Amino acid sequence: QVQLVESGGGSVQAGGSLRLSCGASSYSHYRDCMGWFRQAPGKEREGVASIVTLSGATYYSDSVKGRFSISYDHAKNTVYLQMNSLTPEDTAMYYCAADSAYVCYSGSWSVNQYRYWGQGTQVNVSS
Predict the structure, then answer these.
(1) Which of 42, 29, 50, 47 is nearest to 100 (CA)?
(2) Quick one: pLDDT band at residue 102, thresholds 50, 70, 90?
(3) What is the C-alpha separation between 2 and 16, in angstroms, rounded?
(4) What backbone torsions phi and psi does residue 38 show, to the nearest 5 degrees?
(5) Complete edge-to-edge strand list for the sheet that includes strand 78-83
(6) C-alpha 118: how far from its chain's center?
(7) Neighbours of 85 (CB within 10 A)
(8) Cα–Cα–Cα angle for 92, 114, 5, nearest 5°?
């Protein structure tokens, strides 16, 4: 069983920055791929960024390219999402997810392909 716990959410003004963290349990091949998703009120959950933890390969949605950066710290079993130049459109509940490496390589952003999920951390961006 892979356990994921998100932290780092909060309220910021437009143009500000936040760094989200997702702590994971001990190694499993089911977390070779780790991703960040978000869900705003009344909308479906969408993929934001993902990383293959063994190789460092990263993937981003078009809406966050150039503003967000995903990284992984093997020593701490933690994935990070650095979010810069935030806008009100980034307001959402952000979720951490994990599964096998093929999920990242697929590039589908399908939520049903991820085996494990955290409980989420709220991000609010005011104008």
Answers:
(1) 29
(2) very high
(3) 32
(4) -145, 155
(5) 4-7, 18-24, 78-83, 68-73
(6) 10
(7) 13
(8) 55
Contact between 94 and 37 under an 8 Å Cβ cutoff? The reply is yes
Region of 85 (left: φ > 0; alpha: ψ -120 to 50; beta: rest) is left
**Cα–Cα dist 91/102, whole Å:** 29
Query: To the nearest whole percent, how much of the chain has pLDDT over 90?
Result: 88
Strands (E) located in 14-67: 18-24, 33-39, 46-52, 58-60
Q: What is the mean pLDDT of residues 12-20?
A: 98
3-state secondary structure of 43: coil
Q: What's the mean pLDDT in 72-88?
A: 97
Calpha distance 103→30 (Å, rounded): 10
CA–CA dist 64, 83 (Å, integer): 9
Instruction: Compute the Cα dihedral for 68, 11, 97, 23 and give only its sign.
Output: positive
Q: How many CA atoms lie within 13 A of 70 on its CB side?
A: 25
